Amino acid sequence: MGYSHPETHVSNYQGKITKTKLTKHYPPDTVAAIFLLKNRHPEKWRDKVEVGVNVKLDRDQLTQIEQVFMEKMAQSRARQEAVLLERGITIEHGQD
Length: 96
Description:
The chain is α+β, with helices and mostly antiparallel strands. It has two domains: 3-40, no CATH class; 54-96, no CATH class. It has helices spanning 30-40, 59-86; strands at residues 3-13, 16-26. Strand 1 and strand 2 form a beta hairpin.
């Protein structure tokens, strides 16, 4: 929320002393607000968020994931070989 308090400012201009009443304001400290929230409500305000995920996959789903992965890897390897060929770089591989 910050903090405000009344203050009297004293100044000297061309030999004349003046007193001016004003309200001095200090802005809120965001780091203090963070600590307050973390300490008062740790369940809502924390740095670490825990996510509980329980996934069960059957054999068909795992086989499908493996097939997609192998297809993506083959596409990636083909793109890599095309780029190397385009740049005149050849790499000899053993037979798979």
